[in-house]
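Structure ticket #2291
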Amino acid sequence: MKTKTFRIGGIHPDENKLSNDAVTRPAPLPKQAVYSLSQHIGAPAKAIVKEGDKVKVGTMIAEAGGFVSANIFSSISGTVIKVGDVLDVSGAMKPGIIVQREGEGNIWEESIDRSEKLERLEEHPELSPEEIINRIKYAGIVGMGGACFPTHVKLMPPPGSKAECVIINGVECEPYITSDYRLMMEKPNELIEGLKLVMAAVKVNKGYIGIEDNKPEAIKTITEKLQRRGITNIEVVPLQKKYPQGGEKQLIDAVIGRQVPAPPALPISVGAVVQNAGTAVAIYEAVMKRKPLFERYTTVTGKKLTKPSNYLVRMGTSFGELINLCGGLPEGDNKVLAGGPMMGRAVPSLEVTVGKGQNSITILSGDDAKRKEPQPCIRCAKCVSVCPMGLEPFLLAKGTIMEKWDLMEKEDITTCIECGSCQFTCPAHRPLLDDIRKGKATVMGIIRSRTAPAPAAAKPAAAPAKSNASAEKSGDKKPMWTAPKPFIEPTDIDFSGPKQNPIPEIITGPKPAVIPAGWPK
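Resolution: structure written out below.
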C-alpha cells in the first residue's frame, strides 16, 4: 500500500487504540442535560428558552450569537430548569442551559427523519449550494474533530478565494481515540454522502478521504463502497502513521502536496476545504434528515479502565456518567482529559458535560497521570526537528517566559498548531506547550489591539508639540496591549503563497440563515 505524509517534523507516540474493536453503543440519556453556550469557536450562542419551557429532542434552545457562532439544540425531551451559569469543560462558569428529563426523555421533533433510508444527493435536485449551507448553519454543525469552528463559515470562502477540492479528515492520529474509526466503519455511506454535499456546497468536483494506514479496514470498507457505487471523483488516500497527520495543514500537505502559508492564510488559500469525518456525517444528517447536531460519537478510554468503549452520546451528558459505564475511575491517581493525551486538556470535575467537540474522554492513570520534574534545557534541538510547522519551540517558550512579545511575533508563534510534539519529545521534560500556548494567546491579543479600529474621541484639546528629545525617547511607537483578546485576522498584511493572491479583507458576512422549509420554528 503506497502511503503519503507531510514533509516537516512529526513524531510516533504509542497508539494505545484500546477501543478499536468496541462497536459503538448508544449511551443512556442523562437525567439532566447541561449545555454550555460556548461549544464552538466564536461568539457564544444566545438562549431562546426560559425556565419552565418544554422542549423535545431537536428543539433549538440557543441561537447563534453572530456570524461565527452556532445554534444549540436540546438532546433530550423535558423541562428547562435553569438558564444561567454552568460548569464549562474549561473549568470556568459560563452561560448555559440545563434541561431536566421527563419520562424516557426521547420525544423527538416531528420534522426529523429517523428512518435508516440512505438519501443520495442525486435524488435531491432542490439542494442548491445555498440551501445546503443554510441547512448546515441552522443545524448548528461545527468541526467535530475538536476545533469546533462553525462549518457554514468554512463553506463560505472569502471573496477572491476559490475551492478546488474537499478533504475529509479520517486520520485520527491522536493516541487512544477511536471514535472516528468506528464512525467510518459503521456509517461509510453517510460519510460519502456528507462529502458529496460539501463538494456541492463549495462547487468542486474532487474529493479526498485521508486515512492513516493503521486503519486498513476503514480504508478497505470505504474504497469498496466507492467502487461498488461507481463514484470516481472521490479518492481514499492512505497516509503514513505519523502524528500530527490529522492537523489541517499537515493533511493538506500530505494529500495534495500544497503547504498553507503562515497566518492570516487559510486552507482555502491553496484551494482546499477540510472537514472531519464526524462533521461529514453530521452534515449528511442535517441536510438529508433535518437532524440538528445534538449527539456525537465519543470514545471513553484509558489503560486501566475496565472496559474502554465507544458511545453515541447525547450532548449534555456528564463525563462521570460515561466513565461509570466503563467500570468507573481506576484506583489511585487519575487525570481525566477532554480529548487525547497530546492535545486534550484536564478537566476539573467529572460533572463537566460532553459538547460538540468532545471526541474522547481519556483517563491517564498512575505514572501517566503525573508530569516529570522539568530540568534545564540541554540544547538538543529535538523540539525543532519534530515541529510540523518548522518553528523553534525552545525559543518560543523562552521568549514567552521573558515576555519578548515583539520577538515572539517575529518568530511566528501564532503559526503554532499546539500539537504538543515538542513537549512529547523533550528529554528535559520542559512544559514547552504550556508556555507557547500562553505566548500565542498574548501575541494574538497584541495583533488584535493593533488592527482594531481606534475608539472615537470627543474632540480632544490640541496637544502641545512634542520635543525632539521626547520623540526620540519614545520612538513614536504604538503601545502594545498584551491582553489575550480573541484574535481577529489582520487585513493589512501582504504575503505570497505558492498558488494564491493575498488574503482579501472580509468586509461583511452573509444575511442570517432563514429557517429551512420543514424545520420547526
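Closing remark: The two ends are 50 Å apart (CA to CA).
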